[in-house]
Amino acid sequence: MRYIKLRDLEVSRIGLGAMGMSHGYTGAGTDEAESIRTVHRALELGVTLIDTAEIYGPYTNEELLGRALKGHRDQVVLATKFGLIAHAGAGPWNLDSSPNNIRTSVEGSLKRLGTDHIDLYYQHRVDPDTPIEETVGVLSELVEQGKIRTIGLSEAGPETIRRAHAVHPITAVQSEYSLWTRGLEERVLPLLRELRIGLVPFSPLGRGFLTGKIRSTEGFAEDDFRHDNPRFTGENFQRNLRIADEVQTVAAEAGATPAQVALAWLLAQGDDIAPIPGTKRVSRVEENTAADAVQLTDEQLAKLAGLPPASGDTHTEAALRMLER
Ligand SMILES: NC(=O)c1ccc[n+]([C@@H]2O[C@H](COP(=O)([O-])OP(=O)(O)OC[C@H]3O[C@@H](n4cnc5c(N)ncnc54)[C@H](OP(=O)(O)O)[C@@H]3O)[C@@H](O)[C@H]2O)c1
């Protein structure tokens, strides 16, 4: 495994997204033992960056990681997120990045994760009711107190990133970025490079779609959140299959799997980018981590860059409203 720096924070080039172990996808929460083995295998393979959030579950994903990381804390660059639970008021799935809410969130995350510090603490979504300066101001205090080491933002737009960074250096922005979701290339990525902020692409496998393993949504559990995702619905889903097929063609040529090709393409976009593919299975963490060794030719990269655009939005309308572009 090779390592890169997100600003000054050293991380493995490929991280591990833990969300799907407890939340969102079919099978979440069903096999804790395999999830914990997956975390341990990731660490053996040199993965350091592990990603969670208080909203995953809510809370159960952080609790799971707390158990999995007992005795391993020093090997990990532990990242979690706040801002999607309004603790004093409306509860889960409500934006709240006010100072008091952050102070409550961080204590809960530290406790559940069984640690005295978080390495990378992200605002999960920008809160239009709290000026970003106030949010970053309180995060900066948490850095001074040693409760968090560095600060991140997720799905923030350029203006917010610039304002936040003026208050305290932002170490990383975590946003959706993959072969079929490239919206941040135009305005966000150049700004991150100007300000020397790292990029952590989430859903780098297109929520599993780019791996080519999903040919129908029939097998999804009822609560799988891809049921509502426009890219996985109706005609869009059928149209998008050709994207997965083309990734498969490049993979066959490269002697790799489609998941590895999707990750290798991201890695080829720069050494300030550390994707966090999500899985709850040992075999897949092995497959995904091995993408670090996959070298795509210029021709293969060009073919991937020229994939047809995806049909359908990346999120439901309600979720899209929370994104800043
Ligand atoms: N900041 C944000 O707002 C935000 C939003 C979404 C996600 N995230 C973070 O980003 C991480 C990754 O994103 P994601 O989990 O949404 O999407 P992803 O990494 O693109 O895809 C995960 C899905 O792909 C499957 N998968 C993984 N490796 C595979 C392989 N080699 N072959 C076939 N299928 C494979 C997983 O199933 P199995 O688990 O069954 O292997 C899971 O269903 C999350 O865990 C979370 O930490 C952040």
TrEMBL record:
The protein in question is named Aryl-alcohol dehydrogenase-like predicted oxidoreductase
Domain NADP-dependent oxidoreductase: start-end pairs: 13-305
Top-rank taxon of the source lineage equals Bacteria
Q: Which PANTHER family match?
A: AFLATOXIN B1 ALDEHYDE REDUCTASE, ALDO-KETO REDUCTASE YAKC [NADP(+)]
Q: Is Oxidoreductase included in the keywords of this UniProt record?
A: yes
Sorted UniProt keywords: Oxidoreductase
Pfam families linked to this entry: Aldo_ket_red (PF00248)
Source organism phylogeny? Bacteria, Bacillati, Actinomycetota, Actinomycetes, Streptosporangiales
